[in-house]
Amino acid sequence: MVKFFISIYGGILFIFLNYLFLQLLLGLFSFRHDYPLIKKQLTAKQIDPELFYFIIIPCCNEEAVIARTLTQLCQLDFQGKIIAIDDGSTDQTAQQIQTVHNDKIHYLKRVLPNAQTGKGEALNHALKICEQIIQQKHLNPNKVIIGVVDADGALSKNSFNVLNHYFSNPKTIAAQLRVKMYPQFENTLQISQDAEFFTIINLLQNMRMYTRTVGLSGNGQFFRLQPIVEKIGHQPWGNALLDDYELTLKLMLQKIPIDYISHAWVYQQSLKNMRAYIRQRSRWAQGDLDCLKYLKPVLQSSALDFWQKGGILLFFIQPWLNFMADIAVFGLFLLTVKQVIFILIARHFNLAIINKLVINIVVLFVSSSSWGVLFTFLYHYDLKHNHEARPSKKYLLRLPILIAYMYLILFFSISIAFWRHLRHKSSWIKTKHE
């Protein structure tokens, strides 16, 4: 039984470590060679003056954060409109939106029973309003850029300079900004989320630039309107709980490239407590399961190459791999406890058995935790390089263990996701912002 669990865990660890090594290698290569080139090309003469942005902010009970988000966006220099859509809020969200006075803000309100039917539905409704404004203002849809920012989000000060550079190139259709947590950290859990997005996912997205599998996030996604409407339709977002990746799949199946922008980012709140974290990740895991309906189109698609299909399939099987890895770890733990109890009761110390258990545990611990140490180092470097606030040393010392073994905590998220998916429960498990 011990060999069985070790074989399962070892096989899954081998898959993850090889994939992590590849993303680390290509991600670092991309950062060192592509970033200076892009930075040099950011010149005013390359910016298209006709670019017009619609920043859509879906809101449902966001009274604590929406005014701050709108105020921050209004302070940035861009040509466009901010579409704040109140999706049936029962708190003071509407009043908070209306406290921010700026001509750029366009307020929408959805009411029940049409409201609270999913983030994708709210975004599609807002897009319909955007198209009406485009007709009224006689804007060129090919110069219109649609962006999505969460109600707790904030764009870095250089975001629109970078976006203008990208979308002035007519070949750019969609782009995803880097994601970062606000630097007001109170515990290691919050810092682990920042390290995950700002460093680990950043490396992964950089690697995806080479394999053409960049994924959109729910926060900080941007696309050119005309080609999206022509190839996907007027309602691009679907009803999956992972609406961003569903849109990613739609774009990839239509051979629409997605670029990743690592030198401008969107801030969002990190979660302070483990319960909220598990709930959020259960929604993401269930959203992954929702997207399995695209498995057959992906496998049959002639538009996707080997690397693209491989990247999508790896994304699809991640919840299953995580679940199996957790079962293997818990199984090994229980067998170890059972063996220790047996030794203590029988008072028969079999050195061969003890040595075997110790060696297995040490190998698994070192192979897992070493990646936590490596990513902590890279995270610290990223913060320093990009002039972002760095956490105190006491948090950084705890961070490697949390990064390395977060998947054990996510076992509960994945279990909830599978249970809800099997019971066909698709209600939105909303993250509460403060």
UniProtKB/TrEMBL annotation:
<feature type="transmembrane region" description="Helical">
    <location>
        <begin position="399"/>
        <end position="419"/>
    </location>
</feature>
<keyword id="KW-0812">Transmembrane</keyword>
<protein>
    <submittedName>
        <fullName>Glycosyl transferase</fullName>
    </submittedName>
</protein>
<keyword id="KW-1133">Transmembrane helix</keyword>
<keyword id="KW-0328">Glycosyltransferase</keyword>
<keyword id="KW-0808">Transferase</keyword>
<feature type="transmembrane region" description="Helical">
    <location>
        <begin position="357"/>
        <end position="379"/>
    </location>
</feature>
<dbReference type="Pfam" id="PF13641">
    <property type="entry name" value="Glyco_tranf_2_3"/>
</dbReference>
<dbReference type="GO" id="GO:0016757">
    <property type="term" value="F:glycosyltransferase activity"/>
</dbReference>
<feature type="transmembrane region" description="Helical">
    <location>
        <begin position="327"/>
        <end position="345"/>
    </location>
</feature>
<feature type="transmembrane region" description="Helical">
    <location>
        <begin position="6"/>
        <end position="31"/>
    </location>
</feature>
<dbReference type="InterPro" id="IPR029044">
    <property type="entry name" value="Nucleotide-diphossugar_trans"/>
</dbReference>
<comment type="similarity">
    <text>Belongs to the glycosyltransferase 2 family.</text>
</comment>
<keyword id="KW-0472">Membrane</keyword>
